[in-house]
Amino acid sequence: MRANTTRLSSRDRFVRGLKYSTVGPVDLTRGAVGIGAQSVGSSAGWVRDRYRSSKLSKDVASTQATIAQELAAAAVAVSSLPQTIADARRPKRRRPSPLVLAAAGAAVVAVGAVTFSIVRRSTQPEPSPLPPSVDVTPRP
């Protein structure tokens, strides 16, 4: 068995996560987060380049007005980011509490014990109501 020394890119990890079911959820999560981070970095670079090109091509007054508008829009987006992240992290369905899970586990064990007891008793032969046909006390 050889060790895999190459690091996977986010895309490769995402594809491998879809391929393998054992490590799938972990790789899917890491791949999706990596792709998202790369997308954010790429978008930030694009915005930076657009900002620099608009700064060079426009006069100072219109550039300041545009920058102020962009900063106001960015401030609104940044201020709503915590709420957006909180909404995305909220579970879609509620999970049962540990107490309910423990009670369900205990019920399964109890049903299993009763079933085992019933099956075991049904496999044992019933004692005969007749007296034994041979003498049960050994003779010397």
TrEMBL record:
Region (Disordered) residue spans: 121-140
Topology of the protein relative to the lipid bilayer: Single-pass membrane protein
GO cellular component, one term: plasma membrane
Principal cellular location given in the protein's record: membrane
Keyword Magnesium applies: no
Coiled coil: none
Keyword line: Cell cycle, Cell division, Cell membrane, Cell shape, Membrane, Transmembrane, Transmembrane helix
Positions of transmembrane segments: 99-119
Keyword Cell division found: yes
Protein function: Required for regulated cell division, cell wall synthesis and the maintenance of cell shape.
Similarity-based family: Belongs to the CwsA family.
Stored HAMAP family: CwsA
Name of the protein in its database record: Cell wall synthesis protein CwsA
Species: Mycolicibacterium arabiense
